[in-house]
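testing teh design pipeline on a random one, pls ignore if ur not involved
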């Protein structure tokens, strides 16, 4: 390498290093703190079940007018590595925006084109499970525990009566919370 280019390169690197924030002799005192609590929970959410997607596919609006709701679709959350010596039961709460016209139903997301519908949730036995309310207790098994639920699309009462359901894509979002006992 040419001696002039070499000196220029070394000088440039030195100026660059001096301009780095950490190169300042007057360091800023600590101003970022992290804290938390490590806990021992009886189960882990099975890899891949952290996010559950349930496609309803195409739903003819005339079916909602005729039957008020779709047939239920099953979904599940798998809990792995359960240790019943740490906890024996779990409750689930699906947190989300409640539909203002159907008590306990999940509202569709604001960006949806469809209107006049909501998503209902049920336990595996078909009993209603209201959004933002805790489910009945579910007994854990050692190893794998399956939490089985169902969901359906339901027409809002006024939209059904006035035949004003608006067609188009829709989505609804809820976050599930597990509470072990």
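output:
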């Amino acid at each position: 390498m040419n001696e002039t280019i070499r000196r220029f390169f070394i000088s440039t690197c030195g100026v660059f290093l001096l301009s780095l924030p950490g190169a300042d002799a007057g360091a800023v005192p600590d101003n970022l703190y992290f804290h938390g609590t490590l806990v021992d929970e009886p189960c882990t959410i099975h890899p891949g079940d952290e996010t559950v997607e349930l496609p309803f596919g195409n739903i003819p609006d005339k079916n909602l007018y005729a039957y008020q709701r779709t047939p239920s679709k099953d979904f599940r959350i798998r809990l792995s590595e359960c240790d019943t010596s740490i906890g024996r039961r779990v409750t689930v709460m699906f947190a989300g925006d409640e539909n203002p016209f159907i008590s306990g139903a999940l509202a569709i997301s604001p960006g949806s084109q469809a209107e006049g519908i909501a998503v209902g949730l049920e336990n595996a036995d078909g009993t209603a499970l209201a959004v933002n309310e805790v489910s009945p207790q579910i007994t854990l098994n050692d190893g794998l525990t399956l939490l089985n639920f169902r969901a359906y699309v339901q027409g809002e009462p006024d939209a059904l009566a006035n035949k004003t359901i608006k067609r188009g894509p829709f989505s609804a979002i809820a976050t599930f919370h597990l509470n072990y006992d």
